Amino acid sequence: MLLAASALLLLGLFVPLISYNIALFKRKPLSVILSFGIVIFSISLVIVSPTNLQFFSILLLIIAIYQLFNLYRFNKSHINLKHLRLITQRSGFRLWAFQLGIALISLFFYYSDLKLNIELVLGVLCDFFGFSLFLSIWRSRNITKRVSSSSKFIASNELPTLSVAIPARNESESLLNCLASILKNDYPKLEVFVLDDSSTDRKTPQIIRSFAHDGVEFIPGKEFSDQWLAKNWAYQQLLEAANGELILFCGADVRLSEDSLRFLVSSLVSRDKQMLSVMPNNELPVSFRQRFFQPLRYAWEIGIPRRSLRRPPVLPTCWLARREFLNNNGGFKAVRRRISPESYFAKQALKADGYSFFRYAGILSQKPNSEQFETSVRLRYPQLHRQVESVMFATLVELLGGIASLALLVLAITSFNLPVLMISLIAYIFIGVAFSMLLSLTYQKTIFSGFFLWPLYLALDIYLMNFSMWRYEFGVVLWKERSIAPSVMHHDIRTIG
């Protein structure tokens, strides 16, 4: 049986390389046939592998599925062929290298005298995942302490001029409420611009023009080329129209308290920052099924040690920046196709300690559940650098580091395995507390349900990652009723990531 497993292992590792070489030479039918061999060999390996190697065989099978997806992408994706050939080759080699590493580790443990307790190893991985997640969210909770609008304001005559910029497309009452909340502010040096981003309805421009007597300026959006994402082009037009020293970008679903503008500007000026982004308050949905997408969106910003990676957390809901800083960093021309342009500017500002991110209850976000789902799909694959191997790695991390702890806990209870029970219980507690904190930060009130529901959150996130990848590669990704997948995916290979 060992010889059969070893033969299948070696053959299964070489099939991907053969398939990629055939695919790159445009022998697509043959590459498809061989690509199915990857999965067949991997399934066979799981069947014939000794018990102590089956964990590694299952890992190889999971990677093989992504290998199959990568080759299928080469045959069916709508991406430019030359670019597609390059990214398929790169992703395929990385997946193959990962397979090779797992295969060598499995053979090493099989032939050596070392005994590997998979349950204990998985338990330790779960503990590390849970502690890392807990530590990151706990640190974010302390660093982004909820600030109060009762903080000391700068005197009115010392305040810089401010432009509020809002891109709008096919909006309804949300835009009406947003503008009304902005105009209730007593900021003395204020101008408000709303760009009608080619709305297909009549209501949006009517709402904007209805505020003309309050000083709100209507900007008719210009047509954009396929070199731009529509929202980034709208931002660029707003940047060019603005006259203020500072610019506040926000969506139509935002509601501001009466002193929000003065507080945000005072916070930026007193801290001597170039840019700041706000984690707003969110209304707790009445429906249980609507409480998942927004916390997961925030988890990707505060659940990862982004500052250690020099990629600070940032949210597009409401962010403030110096106009000169934006122009000096290329404006939105520098991020024409970037799905999250504000993250680029946050990263640039952080280089000189010029960026701040905090929670603020004076800003309320009211986004419907359907829009939150589409936002998650739109963001997740670009957040993973549009790479199949990154989706695979993130999926394995959440499976082996998170969901596996629940499976180990159940297994340990049923088998009365005390060491595994203790290790998996510690992991469960860390992850449960982390998600409870995440929900409390999202809705700015104490919520304990995350302690019990976190497996559902992780399972949903795994689905979102893979569904987002599928939609970008083969389907349609919409942003305000316009397809954005071709523009996001057609990056030059040198700019990927």
Tell me about this structure:
The protein has 497 residues and is of the alpha/beta class. Among the domains are: 1-116; 159-381, Spore Coat Polysaccharide Biosynthesis Protein SpsA, Chain A (Alpha-Beta Complex), CATH 3.90.550. It has 17 helices and ten strands. The strands form two sheets. Strands 3-2-1-4-7-6-8-5 form an eight-stranded mixed β-sheet, with helices on both faces. Strands 9-10 form a two-stranded antiparallel sheet. A hairpin with a 2-residue loop joins strand 9 and strand 10 (482-483). Helix 14 (388-415) packs across helix 15 (418-443) and helix 15 packs across helix 16. The protein starts with a helix and ends in an 8-residue tail after the last helix.
Task: Write a brief caption for the model.
Helices cover 58% and strands 11% of the residues. The protein is α/β, with parallel strands linked by helices and 497 residues long.
Helix content: 55-70%
Distance between the termini: 43 Å
Strand content: 5-15%
How do the strands of the widest beta sheet line up side by side?
Answer: 3-2-1-4-7-6-8-5
Tell me the CATH superfamily of the domain at 159-381: Spore Coat Polysaccharide Biosynthesis Protein SpsA, Chain A
Major sheet description: 8 strands, mixed
What sequence of helices (H) and strands (E) makes up the elements?
A: HHHHHEHEHEHEEHEHEHHEHHHHEEH
Q: What is the CATH C level class of the domain at 159-381, in words?
A: Alpha Beta
- Radius of gyration equals 25 Å
Unreliable stretches (pLDDT < 50, length at least 5) are: 1-5, 492-497
> Count the helices. How many?
17
Decide which structural class fits the backbone.
alpha/beta
How many beta-strand segments? Answer: 10
Indicate the overall shape: globular
CATH architecture assignment name of the domain at 159-381 = Alpha-Beta Complex
CATH topology of the domain at 159-381: Spore Coat Polysaccharide Biosynthesis Protein SpsA, Chain A
Mean model confidence by pLDDT: 85
